[in-house]
């Protein structure tokens, strides 16, 4: 999705607001774009940056062909700076380095833009340092903060930003599109639930890593039901081998989360909400092992596990603790 018009299909209100600001030359010095995973935060941030740097934009739309647009696409525009978490957080030193960079004259023009992803992961010192930066903005400096966790952003930072709230995407719409392309209903439902970005959801159909990840989830719940004491060995020998980095580990936890949510949907007879439709018989068997109350406790345990991963707790300890909590 490389144009405002394409993005408007998923976020029409946010796109219209940003385009009008660009057309009327009323761009704010700072934006806070927030919404769930997959709602288009990074794409909106990049499109805004392109619209600010583009040499040949028309009606707010960047040309996508000029030097600036191409450099942004390739990730090497000298006056566009990305700030991402360094480990589990965004640190004060990263913001200090950004401030130093912005004291220099722009290489291409006086326009400078910085994007901060997962802005809610700024340490207190980093957030306070950014606040001082926002309080004294350069006339041609634009800050774009991206987050899934709006409540964790300091109120003083929010007050200095133009807030752009993104709507959750409709899973059904993505599922319908995938089915129209020949993907089975069962797979389309799972892919659309895992990623509401259509391109990413479509790619899962050819992703062998994802196919193995799904298989491992089913194997894990089967071992837990059998209760043969092999679950911890399975985690060490197979699960952690496949889900090797933090992003993959969080993804694996999300898959387990969908499974136990499905148990609750099945128990309350909301079959239309199931994600693992292809494993309906396995889900039914699970209801003999985990009650609705049990499934709810497991869901809370998974959320704790995700938080622990983000706090840099060793993934082996996180998964072993969760496995023990899932066992009955």
UniProtKB/TrEMBL annotation:
**One biological-process term from Gene Ontology?**
DNA-templated DNA replication
One Pfam family named in its UniProt record: DNA_pol3_delta2
Gene Ontology molecular functions? 3'-5' exonuclease activity; DNA-directed DNA polymerase activity
Record SUPFAM superfamilies: P-loop containing nucleoside triphosphate hydrolases
The protein's superkingdom reads: Bacteria
- The transmembrane residues are none
Record's PANTHER family? DNA POLYMERASE III SUBUNIT DELTA, REPLICATION FACTOR C / DNA POLYMERASE III GAMMA-TAU SUBUNIT
Name the NCBIfam families for this protein.
holB, PRK08058.1
Query: What is the protein name stated in its UniProt record?
Result: DNA polymerase-3 subunit delta
Q: Could you tell me which species this protein originates from?
A: Amphibacillus marinus
